[in-house]
Prior knowledge:
It is built from five helices and two strands, in the order αααααββ. The protein is mostly helical. It has two domains: 5-87, no CATH class; 95-128, no CATH class. It has a two-stranded antiparallel sheet.
Amino acid sequence: MSTDFERHNEEVALVWDSYRKGRPIRVPIIFGINVRFTMDILEANPRKMTFEDYFSNPQLMLERQLEHFYWVRHHIPQDAEMGLPSSGWSVFVDFQNVYEAAWFGCPICFCPGEVPDTIRSLTPTTKR
């Protein structure tokens, strides 16, 4: 994708400024794209990292997030800053959809091609 990111980012700033002032020049479009979206895109995940890799190693989680963010910011046109971030990268501990259940002791299951899931560990006889 060949994009003039500076020009794009200037336009995005105008779109959001007009929107916030109640006089939108068009409807802003953004996508909530997480690491799951790019996990199976070879160009975005050249090491073919799995969710088990991602969850098992903090360094790999950091690297995979940066690969993901870089790819999205260079390939998915939307009303968000594109190109390298002007204020640095924002990364986080990413528990996907297992946060609460794993905290309560449910084992995490890494099924191929799927987001992590948990296996129920609390039953009527074990819940106490």
